[in-house]
Amino acid sequence: MGLGGKELKTGFKGSGMRTSKKVIANYFFFFIALGFLMPVHCYSFMNEPDGYMRVQWGTDISTLKNMEFVTEESTHSSVKIYKKNREEMMMLAGATLSAVRYFFWQGKFCSVFVESKGLTNWTRLKNAFLKNYSRGYQPNQYKDKYVWYGKITGMMLEYNKSSNETFLHVYSVRLLEQMGALNKQKAMEGLAPFVGQ
């Protein structure tokens, strides 16, 4: 089941998304790189989701309704970013969301980026995630960042105190690994003419 199903309560609210495209892209491609740094043997975490809001990983964009194209990030793998063009699920675990962006690689749903503002929303999201998905991995005990890396799904939940914003990135492990491998292959092909000179 996708994140936001039975595990976490959700609700409707009008959107009003103002997330920076640069911020979204930076987080997304950070996770592509992260795929090469995480242990080879992934582990399953409690209630590991297989998508977001009933949309499973690998779902083709052509099968989804009310999706509005936002931009294309062609720097790495021609990833297209969408948002809902109608009322969006803008509540997650009792927290009000300010932005939700859906990422599609080769037309397949591979990741979602969620943003929320305010300490109260951060607290609600953190408490819900730690309860529903286990504590996960906290890279730095002094920073509000938690990472879950499963066999199907990876997640990162982070709170930025200076901007008072929460960022949630949920992604398909398999699709981001494929994307990372393709990027690596292209990079090696680009270096080929210079090898041996």
Written description of the protein model:
The chain has one domain. The chain is built from three helices and twelve strands, in the order βαββββββββαβββα. The longest helix has 19 residues. It is globular and about 45 Å long. It starts with 9 loop residues before the first strand and ends in a 6-residue tail after the last helix. About 8% of the residues have low confidence.
As a percent range, the share of helical residues equals 25-40%
Order of adjacent strands in the largest pleated sheet: 4-5-8-9-12-11-10
The global form is globular
- Helix/strand class: alpha+beta
As for the number of domains, it is: 1
Distance between the termini: 52 Å
How much strand content do the residues show?
25-35%
Low-confidence stretches: 9-19, 33-37
Brief overview, please?
With 197 residues, this protein is an alpha+beta fold. It has helices spanning 21-37, 119-133, 173-191; strands spanning 10-13, 51-52, 55-56, 67-73, 79-84, 88-92, 95-96, 99-105, 108-117, 145-149, 153-160, 165-172. The chain has a 7-stranded antiparallel β-sheet with strand order 4-5-8-9-12-11-10, with helices on both faces.
Secondary-structure map:
Blueprint: E1 10-13, H1 21-37, E2 51-52, E3 55-56, E4 67-73, E5 79-84, E6 88-92, E7 95-96, E8 99-105, E9 108-117, H2 119-133, E10 145-149, E11 153-160, E12 165-172, H3 173-191
Helix pairs in contact: 1-3
